[in-house]
Amino acid sequence: MGTAGYIVAGGGIVGAAIAYGLARAGEDVTLLDEGDIALRAARGNFGNVWVQGKGVTAPDYADLTRQAAHDWGAFAEGLEAETGIDLHFRRPGAAYICFSPEELAKRAAALAASNVKARIHSPFQVLDRATLAEVLPAIGPGVAGGTYCPDDGTANPLYLLRALIKAMVARGGRYMPRHGVTGLSRDGAGYAVDTAQGRFTCGRIVLAAGLGNARLAPMLGLAGPVRPVRGQIMVTEKVRPFLTMGTNFIRQTVEGGCIFGESSEEVGEDDGTTLPVLRDTARKAVTAFPLLRDVRVVRAWGALRIMTPDGVPVYQGRDGAFVVCVHSGVTLAPWHAGGLIPHLQAGALDPDVFQSFQPERFDVQAA
Fold first, then answer.
1. Per-residue pLDDT for 365 more than 80?
2. Dihedral angle, C-alpha 21, 24, 29, 32, nearest 10 °
3. Cα torsion for 265, 210, 329, 287, to the nearest 10°?
4. 47: confidence class by pLDDT, cuts 50, 70, 90
5. Residues 59/342, Cβ–Cβ less than 8 Å
6. Rounded to whole angstroms, how far apart are CA atoms 294 and 231?
7. N or C: lower Cβ tally within 10 Å for the chain?
8. CA distance to 222, 235, 295, 331, per residue, from 48 (Å)
9. What is the pLDDT of residues 219-266, one digit of tens each?
10. Is pLDDT at 37 greater than 60 in this prediction?
11. Closest to 201 (Cα-Cα) out of 213, 211, 193
12. Which of 175, 174, 168, 61 lies closest to 120 in space, CA to CA?
């Protein structure tokens, strides 16, 4: 059906950011998207540009996250100027709410440990309940305190996805919905990509298909060690502004509705909802902010996260074929559209940059 310099398989936030970055760099790129039937993680994404706690035991991941968060302001400004789409990016910092002194102490220790080996330090504060109530006056009496990090922010993930695709197309890229990838193979010096709509060929290919990477990557001798982890989410009617910053499991959108959820379930590709989880989620939200007790929930849904065995991204590439497995698609969007692109153009990943992100870290070592 067509040829391209690059094909990016996967039209979610990760794939769209990479395709946009390639188009912005002047590359010929086609973005293949399964379409609305895809188990798209963006549907369940809070939109948190989240730093605190990321990479606690993986300093390279902590650095990658922190640099991307610092780049988000300029990234959003540029993308909004190109597309006219307001990404609703705000960076007032965020609080991680703790419900017991033990949880707060454990959280503080983890954040302190995350700065020990990281090259880019991320400041944080440990707030007792009284201090937390000064910045979040609606906080409930059942909260013990929390941690605060000024590096955190929020954006609208669906507006981000729309803007990335619009900007990519405006720069000459091709967006092909309803083109789920069914097969991959070598084709001379490049690659052949089979879809339900026909075959494409390309010089280089980037697999950013989320959960689909587990199936697609082995076709090219690469690894896609990902599994689905379900999260259930609720959204309320619009209420008066009371959350001046995001939190770890609840945030108020620019429009006024509250999104909350923090469940983590190993249920395969079931993206449904269950009453016990939704009940616990609502109870936790009301404990944190009692004013939500009488607020109506207008929608609830389940979505599947893309998770590697250790939660740290996988970046692998050889012979012009690459695989990207990432959970933090929103936070890392500036990196995928920017810093990653020269490595794709080089045809290989610099081992000095990507050594700790290789899938071989999951291999069982022989005695």
1. no
2. 50
3. -10
4. confident
5. no
6. 24
7. C
8. 30, 15, 23, 7
9. 999 999 999 999 999 999 999 999 999 999 999 998 999 999 988 999
10. no
11. 193
12. 61
Q: Domains in the chain, ordered, with CATH?
A: 2-47+158-226+309-362 (3.50.50.60), 227-307 (3.30.9.10)
| pLDDT digit string, tens, across residues 349-358 | 998 899 999 9
Name residue, tokens 């060929």. 201
Q: 322 has which bridge partners?
A: 206, 317
d(Cα 360, Cα 312) in Å, to the nearest integer? 13
What are the pLDDT digits (tens) for 308-340?
A: 999 999 999 999 999 999 999 999 999 999 999
Closest listed residue to residue 227, CA positions, set 122, 332, 306, 127: 306
Q: What is the pLDDT of residue 196?
A: 87
Give, in order, the Cα–Cα distances in Å from 193 to each of 39, 196, 274: 20, 10, 38
Instruction: Centre a 10 Å sphere on the Cβ of residue 137 and count the other Cβ atoms it contains.
Output: 9
Judge whether 196 and 182 are in contact, CB under 8 Å: yes
Residue 52 in contact with residue 137, Cβ under 8 Å?
no
CA distance 100 to 122: 24
Rounded percentage of the chain residues whose pLDDT exceeds 90: 85
Distance of alpha carbon 63 from alpha carbon 122, whole angstroms: 9
Q: Which of 272, 279, 283 is nearest to 230 (CA)?
A: 272
Give exposure, 227-248, as e/b (b: 16+ Cβ within 10 Å): ebbbbbbbebeebeeebebbbb
List Cα–Cα distances, 235 to 74, 110, 274, 280, 340, in angstroms.
29, 30, 15, 14, 34
Contact 31, 175 (CB under 8 A): yes
Quote the pTM value.
0.95
pLDDT grade for 367, boundaries at 50, 70 and 90 = very low
Looking at residues 101-110, what average pLDDT do you find? 96
pLDDT of residue 366: 46
Contact by Cβ (8 Å): 179, 33: yes
